[in-house]
Amino acid sequence: MAAATDLPTSASLAETIKHDYRTIALVLQGGGALGAYQAGVFEALNDAGIHPSWIAGISIGALNAAIIAGNPPKHRVERLREFWQTICRPPLLPMWSTPPLDPSAWELPWLNGLSGWAALRALTEGQPGFFVPRPFPLLPWRASPTTASWYDTAPLKATLERLVDFDRINHKTAMRVSVGAVNIRTGNFAYFDNTEGELRVEHFMASGSLPPGFPATEIDGEFYWDGGMVSNTPLYKVLSDASCRDSLVFQVDLWSAHGELPRDLAEVTSRAKDIQYSSRTRLITEFMGMRQKQQRVVSDLMALVPEEHRHDPAYRRAEIYAGGALVNLFHLIYRNKPYEGHYKDYEFSHGSMQQHWSSGMDDMQCTLKEPHWFARPTAEHPFITHDAHCED
Asked: Using the 8-state DSSP alphabet, how is residue 9 labeled?
């Protein structure tokens, strides 16, 4: 980690952050049922008095973003909990309550079995307030972009409309909100941003419309799928648009790039998902870090140009590539539990949700115990990253 100046104390951390950074961004990745980890991270930030000015999400991250931005600050954690308790309530009888808090017990075979059973029930029965199986989805005369899926997400639309105030999201003084989706017709990635246009429930649902499970979402005559099909993190959007502002970024990922060597086909499937969805995150982080450093170098060099030469066309062209912003990026990554399988992203049991939420809170709280990490970067090291989590 790079050295930094003006180290804050824990007692004044929230005030120091507000003073040192013009943008505080919360970047939320896709990952289905694992998204409760993001809710735990947010609760810890909220308890510490650190309030994001910008929230960007993809897939389940976009749904969490809607709940956070679409409620008053004092009700955000409460509404997040209501959302997760709604979509994680078992369809019939609870099969298990909470996995054991003692990690030594996680290897018990019955835990793996119950977790797998909860995932199977999600596939066959759906999840209340989220999605339900579509009857006879393969019938040809039912073909339509909005019905070509295994599940109907009408319950999710009703849940979001109940828990989210979209007028608040679109208010001119609101927190900035960006969510990503893929235009099916063009194959291009698209961001929907409340600083550029009105965001409706469809924009958030489009970001989570993962085929073939969920149907395409129509917005103004175009159809969209889950943004994670192209990029599972909106980090690029945040750092590109905030290139001239000193920024503190919390990137909350649900897939770990590091893992054990798989020993069977189930583990192969699980490990493949981790690599598929985390590799882009690492690539984008490294690319944006290099880009930010290059912009800073160009900016510093331009400051050496005498005033009489600053109207030269070459100088004007260089201005496009210059940037003096400082970025402090915290990378919080959910770590798999031993009882979880390849189905972890659609295992919506209430017990697993509580574990995911608790892990997010623990990781963020441990990070907040290191106030010197939050100091503003220096001109020599304009882009700092921290891989932050609690040790077991």
From this structure: P
